[in-house]
Amino acid sequence: MITTQELLHARRQAAGMIREAGIHITDKEADGIEVVDFGLSRLEKEGVQVLTLVQTDRISVKVLALFPNQTEPEHWHPPVGSDPGKEETVRVISGTMYFYLPGENTFKEGFLVKGKEHCYTMRHELVMRPGDQVTLAPGVKHWFQARNEGVVMYSFSTIARDVMDQFTDKAIVRTTKVVEK
Ligand code: ZN
After folding, report:
1. What is the pTM of this model?
2. By CB count within 10 A, which of 112, 115, 153, 166 is most buried?
């Protein structure tokens, strides 16, 4: 869970990063940025900020912001009904991103979240900079991380059903609880 204050602060920071990256967003969109702590209550370590630009029954376009040294936990997009699962292309707009997926262990630049090493099993590392992109087939496990300057990226995909996503860390709950404080 996060507090209302944390939510507003994270939204403001994410909106600033997105605008700084050169993407024009309205104030209304900035107010709608989703702050996701994955139910772990340590947003600055494991979390993501998401602005949804397009969401129809078929496609989805999002802008994701990761704060400095923030990690999006390892997950995959499973089949849902007759849909084989979300196919996704991630493209970096600003910052450097460490992206992990199946393949040879080339882990070098990133870090494993302390105490959660067993929840990050993909060790094939891509170092992605602005203009770099990667396309993931449905069901492929992945996680990613920002370093010192944070990262802003696009996510283009077939329909996103975020609540159906599967995570290696069984403690994760996809819906963020916000409490007054
Ligand atoms: Zn994903």
Report:
1. 0.95
2. 153
Phi, psi dihedrals of residue 164, rounded to the nearest 5°:
-90, -10
Number of domains comprising the chain: 1
Rounded-to-integer distance, Cα 44 and Cα 71, Å:
8
Which two three-digit tokens encode residue 141? 């496990």
Closest CA to 113 of 169, 170, 35, 65: 169
Give me the CATH number covering residue 101.
2.60.120.10
Query: How much is the average pLDDT of 166-176?
Result: 91
* Ligand 1 midpoint to CA 142 (Å): 7
Q: Is 181's pLDDT higher than 80?
A: no
Q: What is the CA(181)–ligand 1 centre distance, in A?
A: 31
> Which DSSP helix (H) or strand (E) runs through 49?
strand 48-55
Count of CB atoms situated within 10 Å of the CB of 12: 13
Instruction: Kindly state the average pLDDT of the residues 46-64.
Output: 96
Supply the pLDDT for residue 162: 81
Query: How do strand 133-136 and strand 124-128 relate by DSSP bridges?
Result: unpaired
CA of 46 to the centre of ligand 1 (A): 14
Q: Determine the distance separating the centroid of ligand 1 and the alpha carbon of 58, expressed in angstroms.
A: 16
Question: What range does the domain containing 130 cover?
Answer: 2-179
